[in-house]
Specification:
It is built from twelve helices and 17 strands. By secondary structure, the protein is of the alpha+beta class. It binds one RNA strand through helix 3 and helix 4.
Amino acid sequence: MLDARLIRANPEKVEQELQKRNLSGTLDRFLLLDEERRRILGRAEELKNFRNTASQEVGKLKKEGKSADELMEKVRQAGQEIKEFDDQLKEIETKIEAILLGIPNLPHESVPVGKDESSNLEVRRWGEPRQFEFEPLAHWDIGPNLDILDFERAAKLSGARFVVYKDWGARLERAVINFYLDVHTGQHGYREILPPFMVNSDCMTGTGQLPKFAEDMFKVDGREMYLIPTAEVPLTNLYREEILEAKDLPLYLTAYTPCFRAEAGSHGRDTRGIIRLHQFNKVELVKITTAETSYDELEKLTGNAEKVLQLLGLPYRVVLLSTGDMGFSAAKTYDLEVWMPGYHDYKEISSCSNCEDFQARRANIRYRPAPKAKVQYAHTLNGSGVAIGRTVAAILENYQEEDGSVTVPEALRPYMGGLERISKRA
RNA sequence: GGAGAGAUGGCCGAGUUGGCUGAAGGCGCUCGCCUGCUAAGCGAGUAGACGGCUUAAAACUGUCUCGAGGGUUCGAAUCCCUCUCUCUCCGCCA
C-alpha cells in the first residue's frame, strides 16, 4: 500500500511512477475521495468536540443541581449529525481503502523501465552450461524413465499439474529441502520457522495477494482461510501488527513449506514436467529491515539464494526485472534463472524482492528506530532460497548421463545416504 | 463439539453503583543526579492512528482507539447485543 499522504503531496510524481508499471489515471478517484474525506472529517470532528465539552458541562450542571435539559437537547441533535457524517466517512474510507489496496508498489529508481520481460536486464552469470555428448532429455522424460516421477498416478489422485515423487525422487526432494535449510540457517544466519500452511485473509492482504489476486489461490471452502502460495506470506505476517525494536533488526527468517497455486491465468505454459504445479515445495527467505539497509540486504539475500545453486554446481544467471515484469508488491526484483538443458534455456528458480514499506504498511509492521523515536514502517524482503521442485528438475537435466541415470551432486550425497548415482530400480 | 473464565499501554496489572482515566501502580526503556567501578538510590520522561496549523518537521491543537463490530445514553474501558481469539475442564483425535 502506498502512503496516502505521499500521493496527496506529489500526485503527478506518483502517477508518473505508476505509468512505468503501465498504469494510468489510477489516482484521479483517490484524490477526489481523499479531499471529500478530509472535508467531512473536519466537520464531524468539530461536532464531536462540541459533544465532548458539552457533555462534561452537563455533568457539572447536574452535580450542581441545575437543569441541563436545554444543553442535552443540543448535544442530542449534534449526535444525529455526527452519525450521518460518520456513515458518510465510513463509506468513503472503504472506497479509498479499496483503491489503495489495488495500487502496486512504485519501482525503485534502479529498475529498468519497460513493458514486459523483454526489458529485463541480465546482471551476471555463474557457471558454464555443460556440453553433452548426447542429446540431453527433459526432466519429464528422465523422471518417469527412472520411475522417480509419476505424472499419471498424480493425475489420478489430484488432476493435472500435480506430481508424485517416488523412491530416490522423493528422497532427492527431501534432501534438497534439508540441504537448503541447513545452508541458510548454518551459513547465512537465518532462523528456521515452520509456519502454518493455511492462513487467514488478513495475512493475504498484508503481503499483497488480496484483494487483487484471489483467483490465484486455493481458498478453504466455508472459511476465511487460504492455502499459502509461498512461505513469504506466513513469514512476513509473523510480525503483523507489531512494533519491533531497532536492535532486533534485521530479522532473517527461512522456512520450508509446500506452496499452493491455482494460477488461473497460466494455462498452456509449462504444461509438462514439474516446473509449474498446483503444489510445489520451496525454501523461502524473508528479511525485515530498516529503510536504510534494505537495498544492501536485497543484494545479500540474492547472494544467499545464489549460493545454494553454486554449491549444487547448477549454472544460472541473475536478471534484474523491468517495471513491466515485477510483482505487485515489489519495488525491485532479481530473478535467478537456472540453466535447463532440456529447455536449452534458463528458467526462473528464484525471485528476490525488496518490497520496501509496501507490505509493512498493509500489514502494519513497524519498528522504533531509537528508544524515544517515532515508529516507522519496516522494510520487508523475500526471496526463494530456492524452489525445490525446479531444483530437482535442474539436477535431473544437468546431471543426467547417457545411460539414463543421474549423478547426485556432491553436496547432496550426505543427504542421500551417500548415494552417488540414481539409476533405475532393478 | 459441550461448559466456564477472560481479552486494558513495550510487558505485568488496577479500574465494571457510567462523567477531567488515554487510563493508578509496578517492570522495562531513555535522560539527568548521585556513586571509585558495578549494583542500589533519587528526579524527570516514556502509546498509536487520522486531521488542522506549518514550505517541511518539531511544538501546539482537534478527533479516535481499553479484542472487533453494533446498540443504549447528554456522556461508555465501565451497561446491552453479535463476533473473534485465549485459557481451564469434558468429548474427539494424530
